[in-house]
Request: fold
Amino acid sequence: MVKISVLQHDLSSHTATRPGDPTPVSRNLNPLVHPFSRARERTRALNAAKMDRMFAKPFVGALEGHVDAVEVLAKQGDSISTVASGSWDGGIIVHNLSQRIQMAQLPQGHKGKVTGLSLVGDSRLLSCGVDCNVKLWKIGSDEPVNVFPGKYAFNSIDHQRSSSIFATASTLVQIWDETKSAPISNLTFPTSTETISSVRFNLSESSILASVGSDRTFTLYDIRTGKAERRVVMQMRANALSWSPTFPTNILLASEDHNLYTFDIRRLDAPSLIYKGHVAAVMSCDWSPTGTEFVSGGWDRTVRIWQTGQGHSPEVYHTKRMQRVTSTLFTTDARFVLSGSDDGNVRIWKGKASERLGIVTARERAAVEYRSSLVDRWKMDKEVGKVVRTRHLPKPVYTANKLKNTMLESKRVKEERRRKHTRAGESKPKPERKKVVLVEQT
Amino acid sequence: MARSGRTSSNNQSRPTFKNQSFSKRKSSAATAVSGYAKRHERKAAKSAGRFEDVYEYAPEKVRRSKIALDFDRDEEMGAGPLGNGGEDDMEDLRMKARLIGENEEDEKIDSEDDEELDSDAAFDDDDDERFAGFFTKKVLKKKASKQVSVTFADVDLNEEEDAEPKESERDNGDTDNEDGEESGEDDEFINVLDILDGRGEPLNDEDNDTPLASFQENSVSAQGGDEEMEDSANEDDEEDDKELDDEDEAEEDDRISISLSEAEDEADGALDDLQTFISSLDPTSSGSRKRKADGEEPEHSRKRRVIKERTEAGVESEFRTQSAGLSLNDLLLPLGQSSLEKSVKVLQSQSGGNATSAGKKKKPQTLSVPLPQRTQERLDREAAYEQTKEEVDKWSATMKRISEADHLSFPLQAQPQGKVSNLELAAKFKPSTALETTISSLLSSANLATDASVLDTEENILKTNAISVEDVAERRRELRQMRELMFRAEIKAKRVKKIKSKVYRRLKRKEKEAVDRNDDGSEEELTEERRLKVEMERARERATLKHKNTGKWAKKMMSRGGYGEGVDDDDIRGGREEIEEMLSRGEKLRRKIQGKGSDDDDSQSENEDDGEDDSGAGVESAFNELRALSKTDADPLESEGKKGKSVFEMKFMKDAMARKQADTSRIVDDFVKEMGGDEGHFSDGEVGSTQDDPDSGVIVSRTGGRMVLQPTAKGSEHPTRTFSVASEETSSSTLKSTDFPTPTPPSPLISISEKHSSRPALSQPFFSNTTLSTSASVNPWLVPSSSSGAGKSGPKKKNEIVVDKDSSQTTKSKHKLKKQNKKTEEEKARVKDDAVVEIELENVLAAPNVSKGQEEAPTTSAVTASKNKSKRKGKAQISDEDSVSNDSEVEEQEKMLRMKGKKAKATKAFEQRELVARAFAGDNVVKEFEEAKRREIAMDAPTEVDTTLPGWGSWGGNGVRKGAPKPHLIKKIAGIDPKSRADYNKAHVIISEKRDKKASKYLVPDLPYPYTSKAQFDRRMQQPLGPEWNTRVGFQRGTLPKVVKKMGTVIDPLDKLS
Reply:
């Protein structure tokens, strides 16, 4: 019997096996038969970069309710949508972002400005103010559950993630327990006479905390050793600080000198990176929960989103009516950014300006990913890079930036000339990173 | 418990203190770490019961204040008389402290009391920096003498040091001085004490053999002069002498412990000790006396006197009156809350640890002076920082992993999902659906719901399933029988299988077939199935196109037809018909394949084997026609050439004619080629190319075709072409079938010819037989080889003669005969050769390809054509004919050549070099290259174009001098400076400086950031990303973003996984 060989087409090889599956396509992948692939990809990359700009509509919405400037924002650790904001008039509002409703409104939470907020657990809120009180609220009730009186006006408060301990910053850092009315520990660097402006617990190593003070200092504490362990004095004071959620040794400082600094607490003699971009003091900063980016709000009325490790050209958000940004926040799902500003509004922005909200199909997502990876690959190209880099800035910011650049340039030139006219090798140029820290005190 | 913990830590921590004192503070960070860690640990251990770490800070403060108060008084006492310089006061004070400690020891203070006091709290307090130096010194001396020296290193008492380093330095200097003084005192004091002790009971002399001693000496010397040095040295010596007999020079700690243990052991003797001490404390005691005796009154002795005032009080107090019934309790009472108590405790516990030396009562040592508050704190901070660093450094591996990851998927740490065990699930299970409920009810009804019930039921079943012995035996028997039968059958099968006899097999098969048939016949109800089966087989048969009656189906049908059993007549008939039909169809198909009409006779099909002749008959006739035509075509040309002037004689007409001729000949050639086969006969040139003896079966083929390097005229090219192709084809055809008619003569060689050789003949005319070889000598490079071959051996040698291996004996003999014939012919030729004038072939440039005129072609072709017609004729006859014709041809050629030779004047001999030069005449390559380069450079060079319009911007008219062109009217076109060109100073290359604008888009000025090498970058850019150039998976992988977030999930910060 002869075997009959028939030309056979297996149906499964060229049809989708299931309704949703993509149709199998067979292509010749030999690069020689695609001589124009590079040109085509470049064009696509350029288009992708332009589309990215075209679709960049970062503003999502504003949360109103405060009469005065928003001073502080706080997010809840285990919820995406709950955010609290405190104002200069002492009012506290707990917002629900997804529903755009106010879960709690405390118009007179404190006398004078609310300086610190921290959402604890699922429905408690700690607040501190210049009225020398720390108040523990239950969300939904108008009266505080507990009041912790202090001697000095509090500037900041932060609660440990997984225990009942919290820290406040006034002239010194105090450690409190929710169940005790007096501070359980005072932490201060011995010779310190400064006002601590902000204090934050490390997110992974909960016993470590850091503070920044008015004496241009950044201090590291450990409540296990009960010591202020090290203090760094810098050129200019820092306004805010934030611990990296994925890199427990990294801390971010928002400095008065328009820059942001990341420090590795293991080596405090110099910052690990400088983030330059703001044209006025940076008032607040917050890491994205992914640790790959962070947001900062500045006195220059802009909110900027930075990529970790890239010290320049951040994403810039601004609106006409947004005033000095006093507080910024990344939501816990790393998709949105919140900013509280002097105009009394809390604004919601997208973390990625051109991201589409709503349901995205698999095809669309694939296309978006393709575009972004194309842009990423071709950003070294002149045209593509230009489109990627260019951001429209409000005129004041633009002019301020120009002025700043001019000043920096002239400074540099002057320094260069000075060096030129001194004896050779006498004055060496100092790296920018080394200029930041004046002294590291032990 | 707490006590033992503390002791151990004390033991370890003290040496570190000491070390710190000797090393620089900055560098001591590391040691401080360990020291700190231990102390911290101790603290933790101590406070574990009551406080958390966090709280540690507050209680300390309270205690500190208490201590401060205690020692404020002391300090006041000490500080007041310091300036006065009472010599013995200090000693006394110290003594008192020590004594108190001793007494405490003896009294055995409660451990509870002890616990409340923290030595560290006592000595590490913040607030008493002011009196830190004093206080610490005093206290620590009471604690243990080995710590005495600590303060003298470079103690920094200044609190403000961090802020104002200069000031602090100054302060340091001051304090150093003070310390130095004090140290001197201490030194003295201790020495004295030692001496005293040594005299009373040779004990507690740590200072003499420890590094402290030397340090003290240094400090003393730094402060005072050589005297002190000597003094101390002397003292040391003395002490050594005293102690040598009692004790080895062991480590301090050991000593302390030894002494303490002894003290504890011999608590009863404590009072005696005390008395001796008291006696030694007497200002007029031996130590001082001795020194006086020595005649040395050092400066610090005065200072000792300063403190003396204070100690006098001590002296006046209890100790004096102790003999008068003062108990140790009395002494201890005021010290109950002080930190001294604790230090005493420490000493006690140490003593409890090891008791070795015998018979000696060791006094507890004074503790070393703790560091100043500020310094201590700084060290602590440093140590704490180190610890924190260590702690966070545990994350470094994780951080590295995260930072190096190509893709991060958040949340990074998956939520720890509680593992649910099967038992848990089973326990929690409650039937929810109808099916589950029914099943569970069934189970419960069957008593199988729970494990226990299942067990029960199983047991019950087992019980009920009990079988009797008989049954079991029966069953076993059955089984055994079965097994036996099976075994036998197996054996039999094996035996049968081994039989190799074919006959047996055949019989077997037939038997089986018979059985099968019977089965077929018997099972009539299964006919339908069988029919189907039969149909299937038939389909297969048809599909194979084996239309023979050898197939399975056909055989079956045949057999069935023969037997006709169990099948209806229709079937049989149908089967037969079908077989017939099948066979006829097979026949038809075969015919079709062989290219015949279905109605052809069988007789024709007989001739199929030699069908080539028959099928080629029509073609043959066509060829004949063509030949005739070509003949007629050739003739008019000749005849016209001879005629007088007419329209056709005019040149353009001639040209046109020639062209037409060429076209037609080409068409003819094409046709011939297309038809293949015997165009060899048709074309004139290659008649002799293949010699084939149809009878003999010996193939004689000429290989090594002719090289015609000279370009030939248009018309003559075709014959060449046809020749080459035809020769190949003829040879192949002859190989295929020996019948192929090639009755060409073997001897003559007719080379390719030009119809009208356009070139003048430069050489002597050749003998016609050698034309082929000499024609190759047209090429000057080939002259030598061809000359040698052509002149002597002649063309015949070139032609290979192939005798097939398979050719038979007869053919071989025939071949021999033929060879002989050829030989005779060759001799003839040689004779003719001799007649011809010898030519120096080296001097000859080229030979014109005048082997044969066009006009000869028809004749030869005619001959060959005639030969084609008369197949298989005698060979001898053919050869004769050929020789005749050849002779005539040769003569003709000679004639023509001679005529041409006259025309071309005399032959010129050329040198080889000249030839080359001539060949490449006008090839100034280098020059041209240089010129081209110059042009290129000039084109790229920057130029200035004067765009002045005459008459514009200047005066015109006669007599106006032309001024220099105005600079703004000179247009400068930027170019490339010749010197900056890449090919500058490179004579042999032109490197274009033109930029490709389109390609420049894909060039980058620098290597972009993440890439580390050009190759890496190139490689990355080479591989496109898109779906068109990648597989689906590759595309997805290539475009996967770095950070992938899960929509709507909270991303928690990194946490320690418990």
Chain B touches chain A through 75 residues (CB under 8 Å). The longest helix of chain B spans residues 165-200. The radius of gyration of chain B is 66 Å.
